[in-house]
């Protein structure tokens, strides 16, 4: 299960190329259909289900639909996210609540609904939450977003400990700077220059460069003893100090 955004869409393509049946979940059917067409053209088996990630009822209906069609769930990717560049003193309660609802509540409920199924099913498998560099290091201009991602990291590590006896692994992929719909509004020319100057590889990431990390964390063959990991994919951004 992955989303309709650019990063999770690339992960969906990677899973499909590895012969997984992929369920793309989101609210934008048009974007989903475009991604499904690309995956299907490459020989994949994708399908779309509309759902609001912050609604328990819709996520429970989604789980039922997946089980009815495919019989099981093996890997869950929680990647829905929205952002804002509003200065701190100008952040309204409505904006704060909207970002928290998608970025944190959506992951919380996704883990609750699908995590319960995985734990009770008894066959283990993997939950991958999409974190952020702002959940590891304090980054300017994205105050509410960063707070939600820090919470996602904490929740993921806590659940990794809780569910390890049930062989349900919970990990976080931590993208560095990848241009995507939710962050383009904050990528001003001065910020771009700062990011590139701080990244040893000297460029932004490409969405397809998250695929390997996702396959590693999803795979029983490669990742069966990996849980509670925050896997950073950032071109070296986090190691630069001076």
Can you characterise this structure?
This protein has a 4-stranded parallel β-sheet with strand order 4-5-6-7, sandwiched between helices. Strands 1-2-3 form a 3-stranded parallel β-sheet, sandwiched between helices. The radius of gyration is 17 Å and the shape is globular. The protein is about 45% helix and about 15% strand. Helix 3 runs parallel beside helix 4. It is built from 8 helices and 7 strands. It has one domain (about 1-240): 3-Layer(aba) Sandwich (Rossmann fold). Strand 1 (about 1-5), helix 1 (about 5-15) and strand 2 form a beta-alpha-beta unit. With about 240 residues, the chain is α/β, with parallel strands linked by helices. About 40% of the residues are buried.
Summarize the structure.
46% of the residues lie in helices and 15% in strands. With 242 residues, it is an alpha/beta fold.
List keywords for this structure.
globular; four-stranded parallel β-sheet; three-stranded parallel β-sheet; Rossmann fold
Helical residue percent band: 40-55%
Biggest β-sheet strands, sense, barrel: 4 strands, parallel
Give the overall silhouette: globular
- Please count the beta strands (DSSP E, at least 2 residues each): 7
CATH class: Alpha Beta
Kindly, what is the distance between the CA atoms of the first and last residues, rounded to a whole number of angstroms?
40 Å
Mean pLDDT: 94
Computed structural class: alpha/beta
Topology:
Layout: E1 2-3, H1 6-17, E2 21-26, H2 29-41, E3 45-50, H3 56-70, E4 75-78, H4 93-121, E5 125-130, H5 143-163, E6 168-175, H6 189-198, H7 211-218, H8 220-223, E7 230-233
Parallel strand pairs: 1-2, 2-3, 4-5, 5-6, 6-7
Helix pairs in contact: 1-2, 1-7, 3-4, 4-5
